[in-house]
Backbone:
């Protein structure tokens, strides 16, 4: 396998660690040191094989003379002197106390080295736990912050289920595939380097064979998993699609049952589920092939080494003894396992790279709402001005040449047929989207120049569909107002005509309202939403009229709450029921993205145009 290929495979891991591992440097350093010590202790422990074999089998060896440490010149000399003096000590024990005592002390040394080796290996593994769990936590936090920060326009083009899949399934796959390979990637290259150095020291001829055979077997194994990342990416995309189907089904269950469409959705889900099963079958078959292939090629390499090593021992001029050859084979066997684990880790990282790519697509998404300057604004004093505003989502223009001025304290109503651009127009004011042409200003300052937080702090939104959270009444009303007290929340709830109902529930303001307020009726949800806007006390109110889908009694309660909310406030109202906006200071009629009429209710009736026709249709 080429160096370039290896670098490409590890690039994913390097990118991940480069971004998220900085706070965990000390753990990585400790892991590095522990792994080096563990590998060195393992070499010392298995080095006892040579004298043990010599004692047991009575192998003839040259006598050793003690050499002073000070004469060492370089690392190789130090290693040779260490080995020589160790043999001197063993020969002294044999001569003085006999072979049995020498074996006993070699056993004690083996136990001590093994204890130090396993202890260091445990500490190395232990040091990676904070890295694995910390990087996973930071990755989730980062992608969640990114999702919250992205503009609303991003979510119009992406499926919610797929985004959820990236946050859950893909992050878990990164943990299972990439982060679980950290220990192997940090430890095994170190082990391989140290073991290879030892093998070169013992016999450069044999090691030359190893340098040829191991990369060759690695290349053959690598070819098997070449397209694993591509298949894994496809599998994760299918998983995201599955989650999207589940989310759509739960959200639209009422419609599904009303149209007897259960069987259709079950069949669609089952077909997709089967496609996922087949895809992951292929992925896992290829993934599981790494271990048996690695073991097979490792055995082939060992068989060749046995043959060649035997030739070196049998050769009269050979520099390798039988005991040293067995030690060599022991070290080589220890180096095969790290190579096999690296091969498997390579598969895992390839598999997880597909998930990291999907997560990275979200993290690298550029924020389309450019903050040219961050001018702070603390209040609303004069007017909102839309001048020659044009906007489109894709190809067709949604708004054309909109000119509108909203004075402080005025109530402006927007009416028109569905798709005429009313909601889009009010979404441009808090900069949920940016205008394509023209501009919007508040008190003479272009909203694109204003600090986004300050801009939205001036505004309160009440939508046609009340957006509530799976939390208590108190937390839903106090949402976005961190300093809110219970008295302030109660006061807002009373103005919104929801206090009495809240006090009838089991735990009052601490009662949980369920997922999206599912335990409440439509009118109750709207009044909680209005209470939230009242508590915020915004200078500018954007109101997508909330009464169009309610029964008469709920509509009256909500309308009363809306009127209380609009008092002494600048309001922009999207009106579906025209009877609710008769008192507006100005009514703007939108048709196919343009303001075609504007004026008071009576003025527009006299025009006998679009507005008059809308009124007649509703009266009819």
Residues:
């Amino acid at each position: 396998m080429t160096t370039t290929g290896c670098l490409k495979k590890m690039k994913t891991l390097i990118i991940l660690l480069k971004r998220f591992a900085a706070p965990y440097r000390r753990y990585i350093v400790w892991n590095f040191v522990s792994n080096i010590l563990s590998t060195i202790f393992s070499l010392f422990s298995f080095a006892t094989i040579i004298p043990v074999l010599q004692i047991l089998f009575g192998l003839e060896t040259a006598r050793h003379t003690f050499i002073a440490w000070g004469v060492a010149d370089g690392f190789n000399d130090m290693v040779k002197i260490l080995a020589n003096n160790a043999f001197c000590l063993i020969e002294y024990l044999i001569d003085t106390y006999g072979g049995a005592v020498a074996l006993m002390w070699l056993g004690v040394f083996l136990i001590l080295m093994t204890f130090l080796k396993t202890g260091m290996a445990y500490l190395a593994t232990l040091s990676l736990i904070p890295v694995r769990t910390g990087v996973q936590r930071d990755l989730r936090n980062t992608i969640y912050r990114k999702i919250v920060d992205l503009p609303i326009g991003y979510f119009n083009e992406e499926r919610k289920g797929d985004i959820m899949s990236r946050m859950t399934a893909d992050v878990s796959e990164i943990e299972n595939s990439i982060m679980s390979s950290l220990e192997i990637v940090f430890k095994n290259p170190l082990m391989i380097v140290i073991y290879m150095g030892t093998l070169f020291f013992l016999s450069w001829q044999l090691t030359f064979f190893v340098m040829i055979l191991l990369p060759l077997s690695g290349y053959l194994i690598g070819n098997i998993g070449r397209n694993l990342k591509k298949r894994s990416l496809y599998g994760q995309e299918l998983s995201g699609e599955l989650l999207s189907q589940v989310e759509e089904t739960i959200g639209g269950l009422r419609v599904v049952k009303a149209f007897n469409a259960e069987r259709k959705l079950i069949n669609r889900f089952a077909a997709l589920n089967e496609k996922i099963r087949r895809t992951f079958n292929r992925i896992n078959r290829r993934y599981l092939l790494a271990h048996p292939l690695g073991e097979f090629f490792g055995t082939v390499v060992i068989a060749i080494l046995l043959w060649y090593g035997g030739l070196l021992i049998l050769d009269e001029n050979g520099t390798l003894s039988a005991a040293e050859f067995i030690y060599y084979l022991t070290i080589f066997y220890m180096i095969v396992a790290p190579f096999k684990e690296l091969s498997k880790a390579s598969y895992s990282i390839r598999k997880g790279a597909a998930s990291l790519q999907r997560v990275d697509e979200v993290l690298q998404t550029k924020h389309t709402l450019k903050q040219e300057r961050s001018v702070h604004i603390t209040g609303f004093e004069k007017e909102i001005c839309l001048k020659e505003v044009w906007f489109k989502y894709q190809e067709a223009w949604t708004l054309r040449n909109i000119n509108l001025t909203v004075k402080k304290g005025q109530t402006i109503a927007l009416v028109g047929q569905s798709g005429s651009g009313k909601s889009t127009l009010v979404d441009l004011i808090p900069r949920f989207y940016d205008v394509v042409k023209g501009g919007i200003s508040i008190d003479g300052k272009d909203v694109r120049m204003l600090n986004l937080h300050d801009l939205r702090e001036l505004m309160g939104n009440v939508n046609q569909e009340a957006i509530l959270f799976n939390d208590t009444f108190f937390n839903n009303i106090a949402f976005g107002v961190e300093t809110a007290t219970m008295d302030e929340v109660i006061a807002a709830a009373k103005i919104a005509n929801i206090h009495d109902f809240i006090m009838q529930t089991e735990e009052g303001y601490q009662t949980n309202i369920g997922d999206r307020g599912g335990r409440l009726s439509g009118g109750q949800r709207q009044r909680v939403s209005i209470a939230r806007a009242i508590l915020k006390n915004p200078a500018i109110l954007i109101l997508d009229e909330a009464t169009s889908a309610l029964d008469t009694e709920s509509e009256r309660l909500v309308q009363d709450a809306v009127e209380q909310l609009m008092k002494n406030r600048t309001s922009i109202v999207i009106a579906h029921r025209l009877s609710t906006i008769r008192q507006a200071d100005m009514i703007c009629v939108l048709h196919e993205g343009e303001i075609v009429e504007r004026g008071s209710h009576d003025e527009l009736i006299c025009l006998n145009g679009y507005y008059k026709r809308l009124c007649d249709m509703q009266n009819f």
Notes: Residues 1-9 have pLDDT under 50 and may be disordered. DSSP finds 23 helices and ten strands in the chain. The first helix runs from residue 3 to 20. The two ends are 79 Å apart (CA to CA).
